[in-house]
């Protein structure tokens, strides 16, 4: 990397760090200067005893005890005498008892000064102290439990004394404790939580108040994030779903995406099979062939280009999924594949900081176990491969007494192991039980002007295969300070530092190792090729000195203005950045023919985003509501990578730290840049709380297109009708009934530089004998100035409902989307000098249906049972490709070589069909053998060739569903979640092909799974073909991957309020949980969801058992 680039990058990092540091210092300093000092003062405990003294005497005593100074005008102080006794009480409690009844307000100023002011009179006059008893100020505790309508405890409910900042929040099971000044019987406590109606209750003489929060489902007041703002769910016209991540808090999920798996209809999240891995994510089917297929991630309003493994699940407050084109239109060309909006945690309304710790330990093992042949099974496998010689004719089921297996194994180490009884378990020595340890500590709180959330997390995961490791440290600082009534600033920042160091051996290589050989020789040195083939010893890669670290800093600095004198008008400025740097260093003396290889790869990426957001909300004539959002922004991405590799070392004692010792050295580097420019306008209009309109238009610009195609417009419109607000439905017991529909057009991007002609530089010329090679240039790809955006248009129709007094609620969505101008590499005549050009072609359609149901089956006082169910089905279809009809049959041609067929989904299976396995009694066709499949001659031309292939099925499922059940009995909670993907007779198929091993010497040395049901003369009805020689045309095995999985199980116990109070805590929960505990399927192999079968590749999905605790103090 040039020195100038290094300086620029260092400057950027320093600038980012400095801005963050200064912002945090300013926010924290301002907040505590404005509020933190005040809180410290008001928490100071004092002792006062004044008998028949004046009010000024009491104030002077307080000044002396608390080291403060009062400032007031003469008329503020009442002319009365009083007796007051105060024992070890905080100052704010004293003020509440002393000042509030006398209509005196107070404000904490600088330099420990308290300003006293006269409040608006209430008609209560000061009472002379003749015969009055001494005022004894003391504290009392108000306790209770907050529940929902079913009686289930509600965590995180804000509980605040009205008009003050004195408050707390409910714990994990809904319990709370609140300290109040004694004697304030007229005070009001406010209970508030998103999605519930606020409850205001006068304290009176009560010491315990239990509150039932009523869900305002009539208006569906749950607020969801919709991009560049929030909306009430009742006002949505598109398909936006908030994931229930709370239900999976105790599951051992290293990656946030694992908490979304199966819980949102239309959101498809794949399985992970390696430590720290990222699952695949898609929404509502595949909308492109070669274009960008990534779901857009947005964290705290900023597009996030990192991976979900960079996020700590414990830091996440909510996850909202935008599924239909109308909802996604606000992000235009970057949202064609769906949007996931992630909101991190902020402060809670508590006068004191709330500390939380969550820790868990998880053990892991494969969901399904496969086993390699041991010595005895391996010898039988070799004989079955050579069954024509190892067994006697004519039925070949009786062993041949003259057969000597040693004569058929040429490799000396394998023969030696055969003779000396070696039975080495390669599987056992390269695999081990996995585990996950997770620790998360956070502090959060909110005072009058300052809110904050600070956290740190540590995760350590060890996978099933040796050296499959993942460690992650995360930090988060979310701070917001209200500078004035109309101006606030804040920062939402996080750091992720991941370590993937170590190279895990491939299971395919382990599977091939015969049990007759060992990994080391008699001198203890590793054997390069233990079985004598080109399959390397799996321990060689595991012995590498490998460093693989991936680090990132992500943040958003923002400022918000509530424009004075214009109610409802706000402005927000977001500056987001995402800086990451990866280091992958490795050395291995066994590679490159045991001459050694070492390399260093360094890469950095830096993205920044600048958004200007203006919002105006107003209501007029009591029936019209208007919400207008305007956005203008710019985003830029930069990437650099350098790679230095050395081959052939005399010694690798310095590992990768001195690549100059290599006799062959290779250096390469790369860099790229891309930028986005966009403007967006969105209007939400509501009439009489029942007629809804949402209109959006976005203009996108992307540097990756040619000059005449850099920008595009993407509009959307949505309508909603809240039928339950109509008079004719009032008599019916329907809490909510809403119809909605939307239409939109979105875009999709091409890879940067795709429209340009690309040049290759290569060593091309030698001028004169002995002269050095000179470099030349050549055009590698053709330019296409007409290459344009992929465009997705779509309709979505939905129904939201709640009936039976909100005991049953849900939604139903139907959709149809079409993507046109697909980005594809089209074959062109080679006379041009090129084989392909990137162009826009054809159409793809997706249609589907999604259902969500939430029910309260039992809503007793002690026993509750809540059920959530979701179902989704999607059908993908290729509508058009090149539009060519080369054979003149009047039907558009398929692109067979690319596996694309008109009227079929992407991923259609086009292959041969089998007429069964050829048996001993049958005459094999030419090119086929007994034990192989008889391929069906589809066109009856007497030959088996590519023309005999047919559509056998598809890889997409018919439908999938999820079922969550939660039972609560007092403070115990039991929760389990079933996840399922189902395919019909010809859907959700996966390639599950154990190939022929052959009869050659090399093939005999390879091991295999003993679960493989392969053909032999003694096993003629086997599922799979014989292991010996292959046929001229092989039949590929496909299996139905349908399954039902017990994905998550949790049992938890939350301590009651009395015990929590004795322990001095705010909440304590103990839990045990399980992950992927059972799977019901007919799939043979590792796992149906990951598609890992009986072939040599693939990794098992893990099941886990966890224990943990969640404590707040």
TrEMBL record:
Tell me the InterPro entries matching this sequence. Beta-barrel_TonB_sf (IPR036942), CarboxyPept-like_regulatory (IPR008969), Plug_dom (IPR012910), Plug_dom_sf (IPR037066), TonB-dep_OMP_SusC/RagA (IPR023996), TonB-dep_OMP_SusC/RagA_CS (IPR023997), TonB-dep_rcpt-like (IPR039426)
Which keywords fit this entry according to its UniProt record?
A: Cell outer membrane, Membrane, Receptor, Transmembrane, Transmembrane beta strand, Transport
Task: Tell where it localizes.
Answer: Cell outer membrane
Any one cellular component term from GO for this entry?
Answer: cell outer membrane
Membrane topology summary: Multi-pass membrane protein
Q: Does the keyword RNA-binding apply?
A: no
Cross-referenced SUPFAM superfamilies, in alphabetical order? Carboxypeptidase regulatory domain-like, Porins
Limits of the TonB-dependent receptor plug domain: 233-339
Q: Which family does it belong to?
A: Belongs to the TonB-dependent receptor family.
State the protein's name: TonB-dependent receptor
Q: Which organism is it from?
A: Dyadobacter pollutisoli
Its ancestry begins with: Bacteria, Pseudomonadati, Bacteroidota, Cytophagia, Cytophagales
């Amino acid at each position: 990397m040039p020195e100038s680039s290094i300086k620029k990058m260092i400057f950027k990092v320093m600038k980012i760090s400095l801005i963050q540091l200064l912002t945090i210092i300013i926010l924290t300093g301002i907040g505590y200067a404005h509020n933190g000092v005040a809180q410290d003062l008001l928490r100071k405990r004092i002792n006062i005893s004044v008998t028949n003294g004046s009010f000024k005497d009491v104030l002077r005593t307080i000044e002396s005890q608390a080291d403060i100074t009062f400032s007031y005008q003469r008329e503020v102080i009442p002319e009365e005498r009083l007796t007051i006794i105060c024992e070890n009480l905080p100052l704010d409690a004293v003020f509440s008892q002393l000042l509030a009844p006398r209509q005196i307000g107070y404000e904490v100023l600088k330099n420990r000064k308290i300003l006293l002011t006269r409040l608006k009179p209430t008609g209560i006059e000061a009472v002379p102290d003749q015969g009055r008893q001494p005022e004894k100020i003391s504290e009392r505790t108000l306790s209770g439990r907050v529940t929902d309508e079913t009686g289930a405890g509600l965590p995180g409910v804000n509980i605040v004394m009205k008009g003050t900042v004195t408050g707390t929040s409910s714990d994990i099971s809904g319990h709370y404790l609140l300290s109040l000044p004694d004697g304030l019987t007229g005070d009001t406590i406010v209970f508030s939580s998103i999605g519930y109606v606020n409850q205001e209750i006068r304290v009176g003489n009560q010491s315990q108040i239990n509150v039932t929060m009523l869900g305002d489902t009539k208006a569906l007041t749950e607020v969801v994030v919709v991009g560049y703002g929030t909306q009430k769910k009742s006002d949505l016209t598109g398909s936006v779903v908030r994931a229930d991540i709370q239900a999976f808090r105790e599951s051992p999920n290293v990656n946030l995406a694992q908490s979304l798996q199966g819980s949102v209809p239309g959101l498809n999240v794949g399985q992970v099979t390696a430590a720290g891995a990222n699952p695949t994510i898609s929404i509502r089917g595949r909308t492109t062939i070669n274009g960008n297929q990534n779901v857009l991630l947005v964290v705290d309003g900023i597009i996030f280009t990192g991976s979900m493994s960079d996020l700590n699940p414990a830091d996440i407050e909510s996850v909202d999924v935008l599924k239909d084109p109308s909802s996604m239109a606000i992000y235009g060309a970057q949202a064609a594949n769906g949007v996931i909006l992630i909101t991190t945690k902020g402060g809670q309304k508590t006068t004191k900081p709330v500390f939380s710790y969550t820790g868990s330990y998880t053990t892991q093992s494969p969901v399904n176990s496969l086993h390699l042949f041991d010595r005895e099974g391996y010898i039988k496998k070799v004989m079955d491969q050579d069954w024509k010689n190892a067994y006697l004719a004519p039925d070949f089921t009786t062993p041949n007494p003259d057969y000597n297996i040693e004569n058929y194994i040429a490799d000396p180490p394998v023969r030696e192991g055969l003779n000396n009884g070696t039975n080495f378990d390669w599987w056992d020595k390269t695999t081990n039980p996995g585990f996950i340890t997770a620790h998360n500590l956070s502090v959060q709180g909110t005072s009058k002007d300052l809110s904050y959330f600070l956290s740190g997390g540590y995760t350590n995961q060890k996978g099933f295969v040796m050296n499959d490791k993942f460690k992650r440290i995360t930090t988060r600082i979310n701070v917001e300070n209200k500078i004035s009534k109309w101006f606030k600033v804040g920062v939402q920042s996080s750091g992720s530092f991941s370590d993937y160091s170590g190279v895990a051996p491939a299971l395919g290589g382990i599977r091939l190792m015969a049990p007759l050989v060992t990994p080391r020789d008699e001198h203890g040195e590793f054997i390069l090729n233990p079985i004598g083939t080109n399959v390397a010893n799996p321990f060689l890669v595991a012995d590498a000195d490998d460093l693989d670290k991936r680090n990132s800093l992500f943040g958003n600095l923002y400022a918000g203005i509530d424009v004075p004198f214009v109610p409802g008008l706000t402005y927000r400025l977001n500056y987001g950045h995402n800086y990451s740097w990866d280091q992958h260093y490795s050395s291995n003396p066994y590679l490159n023919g045991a001459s050694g290889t070492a390399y260093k790869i360094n890469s950095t990426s830096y993205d920044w985003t600048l958004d200007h957001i203006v919002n105006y909300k107003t209501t007029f004539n009591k029936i019209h509501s208007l919400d207008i959002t305007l956005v203008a922004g710019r985003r830029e991405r930069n990437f650099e990578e350098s790679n230095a590799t050395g081959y052939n070392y005399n010694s690798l004692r310095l590992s990768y730290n001195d690549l100059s010792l290599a006799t062959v050295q290779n250096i390469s580097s790369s860099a790229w840049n891309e930028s986005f420019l966009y403007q967006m306008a969105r209007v939400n209009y509501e009439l009489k709380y029942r007629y809804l309109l949402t209109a959006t238009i976005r203009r996108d610009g992307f540097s990756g297109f040619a000059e005449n195609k850099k920008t595009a417009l993407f509009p959307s419109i949505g309508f909603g009708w809240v039928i339950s607000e109509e008079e004719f439905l009032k008599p019916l017991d329907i809490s909510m009934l809403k119809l909605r529909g939307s239409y939109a057009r979105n875009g999709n991007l091409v890879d940067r530089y795709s429209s340009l002609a690309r040049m290759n530089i290569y060593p091309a010329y030698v001028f004169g004998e002995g002269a050095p090679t000179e470099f030349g240039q050549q055009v590698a790809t053709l330019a296409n100035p007409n290459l344009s955006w992929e465009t997705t248009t779509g309709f979505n129709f939905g129904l939201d409902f709640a009936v039976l007094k909100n005991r049953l609620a849900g939604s139903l969505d139907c959709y149809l989307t079409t993507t046109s101008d697909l980005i594809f590499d089209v074959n062109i005549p080679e006379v041009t000098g090129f084989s392909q050009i990137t162009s826009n072609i054809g159409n793809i359609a997706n249609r589907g249906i999604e259902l969500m149901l939430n029910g309260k089956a039992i809503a007793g006082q002690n026993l509750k049972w809540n059920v959530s169910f979701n179902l989704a089905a999607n059908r993908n279809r290729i509508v058009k490709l090149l539009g060519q009809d080369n054979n003149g049959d009047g039907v558009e041609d398929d692109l067979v070589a690319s596996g694309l067929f008109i009227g079929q989904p992407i991923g259609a299976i086009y292959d041969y069909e089998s007429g069964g396995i050829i048996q001993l009694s049958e005459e094999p066709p030419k090119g086929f053998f007994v034990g192989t499949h008889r391929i069906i001659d589809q066109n009856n031309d007497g030959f088996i060739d590519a023309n005999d292939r047919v559509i056998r099925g598809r890889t997409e499922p018919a439908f999938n569903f999820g079922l969550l059940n939660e039972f609560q009995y007092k403070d115990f909670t039991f929760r389990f979640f079933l996840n399922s993907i189902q395919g019909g007779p010809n859907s959700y198929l996966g390639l599950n092909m154990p190939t022929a091993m052959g009869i050659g010497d090399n093939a005999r040395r390879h091991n295999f799974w003993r679960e493989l049901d392969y053909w032999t003369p003694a096993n003629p009805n086997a599922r799979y073909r014989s292991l010996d020689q292959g046929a001229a045309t092989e039949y590929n095995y496909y299996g139905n991957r349908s399954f039902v999985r017990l994905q998550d199980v949790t049992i938890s116990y939350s301590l009651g309020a009395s015990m929590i109070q004795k322990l001095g805590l705010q909440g304590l929960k103990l839990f045990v949980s399980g992950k992927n505990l059972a799977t019901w399927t007919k799939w043979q192999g590792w796992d149906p969801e990951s598609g890992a079968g009986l072939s040599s590749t693939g990794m098992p999905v893990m099941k886990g058992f966890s224990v943990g605790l969640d404590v707040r103090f």
